[in-house]
């Protein structure tokens, strides 16, 4: 691999072009007949750059007249070619290496093309300035899933270098191109944008087959139309395919969810043999070596729109019924091995969608559960899959895993610390009242093992979060046990799952009050500048087994599940603390109520904060205060 200064020098005026690259092996490729040529410049090789050349804006570096290929061609463009790119920040030598992909005619989302000569590298620059790049393009049987040293150079593009000048971002929140990549922050329980802002998830987990949408190419079996959300599509939003209306339902759904504060959508790119059986990235349901380029380009257009609206993609790569699908279908591979079809799937997903700013990867739903298929991943497989995926993923996005409610200890324990590349625990909790304790268990266990995980609550048991019209007490249990229970235990956020109608959910307005309840919490944290990322669960600071607390040196957040007065042990130093009460219910005032001012005793002494509504209230409330207000701005 070239260092950045070597690439920069090779492109400097007056220097013989690409002296270093000319030393690369020169051979004949299967794609281009005749004698091989030395590596050449980007311009001479027909390289174009698409997109805004700005920090945190995904851009495309395209080979426009590359090897001609077809989705069903004798030379499989997904398996028998391997294109990759290394981008180098000339000022710092920082490198970002990403897999690339065949893009048919380069406009397949619109044209539906199945043939073409465009090969694409997607890249999101983390910094402004001069970036150089180096292409690595090889051909050969199954070269996409073999070691990087394998394959025959594809001339004249293998070894090509070029450069781009990246300007600072010009976008504003909620556009994620104003925030950059959502990344793991080592040592923290929370994800953080490259801009420095912290992230607390407010997500939709239903329908799990969000991508089972009939408006995508090759998706006639899709269960969803989202017709109720076509009115939410606006002029200028993405369109694709031959029909002007093809995109409107699902794009409108994203618009609606973003408008009510939802910041994450759960989506599975592959549900074959799963609950819905209506989503796959391939040209047909059982063809695991050939990908549907136009469908994937349409997914990509949707995901880019999610970025523009401030919505993170929670991409869940398998579900329990198909977690061994690749190994079962790949002849010669043991069911508990590692199929090349899986390697190819991981590569295609990262290459096509890894440039998205708001992205969380999840290796699979209910991993390790021996369901009706009798198939399940083993500890060794999970470790191998995680390591392989982490090596492909170039930016540092979260890599999580989901389990059956009863399978957490069995699945998560062998993955703690440096035993695996896992960085997040995606919890399914059967009994809602257990959320606080179970989040706390895995926050503590991962920290104790030397690598703090981001722990999120992504599925709740029973019927799940019912629509507003069916929910008793206006989602009181969801608000108390799940939303606030997770927050005060140190969770990185929640997603709402509706088990009773998951696969059939078409109109997200049915949960409008649940979205509003969750958004109310997020607005409270931002308005009061509560630095949740710098606070730790300290339930011992508030009296009562069902009361919870987050604390830092200068701020204390207490949640009282049944209301009433708060009897608290304030952090040092002794002195006057000020704060107030907040009512989490919809329809209550948005600001703090009942100003509180108490003199903190020495450490170990307790103070009583009286409720502004008296002792008789039985509704969960929280109080927040400190000797001084936090300085950090609001989170996203």
Which helices and strands, and how do they pair?
Layout: H1 4-10, E1 47-50, E2 59-63, E3 69-70, E4 81-89, E5 95-99, E6 101-102, H2 108-111, E7 115-116, E8 119-123, E9 129-139, E10 152-153, E11 161-166, E12 182-184, E13 191-193, E14 198-199, E15 201-204, H3 248-259, E16 264-267, H4 293-309, E17 312-316, H5 325-329, H6 340-353, E18 359-362, H7 379-392, E19 399-402, H8 408-412, E20 424-429, H9 435-448, E21 454-460, H10 476-489, E22 493-496, H11 512-527, E23 536-537, E24 547-552, E25 555-560, E26 566-568, E27 575-582, E28 593-600, E29 607-609, E30 621-626
Helix pairs in contact: 3-4, 9-10, 10-11
Which shape, going by the Cα principal axes? globular
Read across the widest sheet, the strand sequence of neighbours is: 21-20-19-18-17-16-15-22
Report the radius of gyration as a whole number of Å.
26 Å
Strand content: 15-25%
Task: Determine the number of helices (DSSP H or I, runs of at least 4 residues).
Answer: 11
Which percent bin holds the helix content?
Answer: 10-25%
For the largest beta-sheet, the strand count, sense and barrel status come to: 8 strands, parallel
**Tally of individual domains:** 3
Number of strands: 30
Distance between the termini: 37 Å
Residue windows where pLDDT falls under 50 for at least 5 positions: 1-37, 628-636
Organism: Porphyra umbilicalis
Protein name: DUF5060 domain-containing protein
InterPro entries: DUF5060, Ig-like_fold
Pfam family, one: DUF5060
